[in-house]
Automatic annotation (TrEMBL):
Keywords: Amino-acid biosynthesis, Decarboxylase, Lyase, Lysine biosynthesis, Pyridoxal phosphate
Residue numbers bearing the N6-(pyridoxal phosphate)lysine modification: 47
Family affiliation: Belongs to the Orn/Lys/Arg decarboxylase class-II family. LysA subfamily.
Native organism: Hymenobacter swuensis DY53
Catalytic activity field: meso-2,6-diaminopimelate + H(+) = L-lysine + CO2
InterPro entries named in the record: Ala_racemase/Decarboxylase_C, DAP_deCOOHase_LysA, De-COase2_C, De-COase2_N, De-COase2_pyr-phos_BS, Orn/DAP/Arg_de-COase, PLP-binding_barrel
Residue span(s) of domain Orn/DAP/Arg decarboxylase 2 C-terminal: 16-359
Taxonomic path: Bacteria, Pseudomonadati, Bacteroidota, Cytophagia, Cytophagales
Record-listed substrate binding positions: 267, 303, 307, 333, 361
Every Orn/DAP/Arg decarboxylase 2 N-terminal domain range: 39-271
Protein name in UniProt: Diaminopimelate decarboxylase
């Protein structure tokens, strides 16, 4: 189905984020249908988009919440996620954040270091509680994705390296207010070569065997998120191939009887249902380049500027003929460029432009640089 902006939104002041809730519902239906046969528990990664109307639908579909800050934990609870469906991850959790999550009795903390476990133990003891913990390991698996969003390599700041794991496990003997319930790994984001999940599974299999040799049988395995989406042809793949993703773990992960497997997907759930809608302010022809200057910029969608990411751009007002444009924003940075040399139907001032696949890591990464006003969200 080609992209369609509801007619009444064509009059809306730009820029704005448009969320297609029917598409979100279809995506959630596909996700839960693919997860059910293997009994996978899906925790949605709020960092991709934490807008309440989306969260409420995600919760209603039966997903849990994967949070990386006290603010996200609070938002998840506000959206109605049950505390025992909330996980708190992150390499730098503050005492205040931990205290609030403990008080809410969330399901699990994904812990990443001995100092963090010590703090968890201390703060849990002070509240007369026990913190349930999954150890985030660094499996040293290359996710073959952009360097900024690769997380499972030795050089990354995330997780406990495999060489250090024995020491970390030993430290638990002296931490009575910490209960080890699982292992956690996340190797990166926007992963399109799914074979890396087979490699991750094999590492986790080895680790489980090793842990069992030391007397630890874990009820939970969390394999992280990372399933990528099609930024180039969104309309051909509006719904990611969830069956292929879960299939990798079904095939390669040796699940113990009764063991729960958790995944924490963000992008694959919400990217395609969001579109950044903008207007052309000016078309400027320089000696070498024809610029379409939009009223949206890196302040509304930083991914192209930050990672060189591609987002599909459509002129919704013009039929052609097609000409090459550099599509740029109004911000005082040369990196404020959405695309270079992209073919668009002949474009003029006032044309409506859709920047697709902006539902994940779009609005949440918006900034007020250049004292820009926050662009609103509309839901249909
Ligand atoms: N779990 C952990 C521990 C994570 O660090 C992440 C993402 C996820 C789950 C969700 O990953 P997803 O399913 O969305 O790939 N701003 C970047 C992406 C940063 C991802 C950070 N971690 C971008 O715009 O591409």
């Amino acid at each position: 189905m080609p992209f369609h902006l509801p007619a009444e939104l064509a009059q809306q002041p730009t820029p704005f984020y448009y969320y297609d809730l029917a598409l979100l519902d279809q995506t959630l239906a596909a996700l839960t249908a693919a997860a059910r046969p293997g009994n996978f528990q899906v925790h949605y990664a709020l960092k991709a988009n934490f807008n309440l109307p989306l969260l409420q639908r995600i919760r209603a579909a039966g997903l849990g919440a994967d949070c990386v800050s006290g603010g996200e934990v609070q938002r998840a609870l506000e959206a109605g996620f049950a505390p025992d469906h909330v996980v708190f991850a992150g390499v730098g959790k503050s005492d205040a954040e931990i205290n609030r999550a403990l008080a809410a009795d969330i399901f699990c903390f994904n812990a990443e270091s001995v100092p963090e476990l010590q703090v968890l133990n201390e703060l849990a003891a002070a509240q007369g509680r026990t913190a349930r913990v999954a150890l985030r390991i660094n499996p040293n698996v290359d996710a073959h994705t952009h360097a900024y969003i690769t997380t499972g390599l030795e050089a990354n700041k995330f997780g406990i390296s495999l060489q250090d794991l024995a020491g970390v496990i030993d430290s638990l003997d002296s931490l009575p207010h910490v209960e080890l319930i699982g292992l956690h790994a996340h190797i990166g984001s926007q992963i399109t070569n799914l074979t890396v999940f087979a490699e991750l599974s094999r590492k986790l299999n080895e680790l489980q065997t090793w842990l069992e040799g030391r007397g630890h049988r874990l009820p939970h395995l969390n394999v992280g998120g990372g399933l990528g989406i099609d930024y180039h042809a969104p309309d051909e793949h509006l719904i990611p191939d969830f069956a292929a993703y879960f299939g990798m773990f079904e095939q390669h992960l040796q699940r113990r009887p009764g063991q729960q497997v958790h995944v924490e997907l963000g992008r694959a759930v919400v990217a395609q249902c969001g579109t950044l809608v903008s207007r052309v302010l000016y078309v400027k022809e320089s000696q070498q380049v024809r610029f379409a200057i939009l009223d949206a910029g890196m302040t509304e969608l930083i991914r192209p500027a930050l990672y060189g990411s591609h987002h599909h751009i459509q002129n919704l007002s013009s039929q052609g003929p097609f000409l090459p444009y550099d599509v740029v924003g109004p911000i005082c940075e040369s990196s404020d460029t959405f695309a270079k040399g992209v073919l668009l139907p002949e474009t003029q001032r006032g044309d409506l432009v859709a920047i697709r696949s902006a539902g994940a890591y779009g609005e949440v990464m918006a900034s007020g640089y250049n004292l820009r006003e926050k662009a609103p969200a509309v839901y249909r």
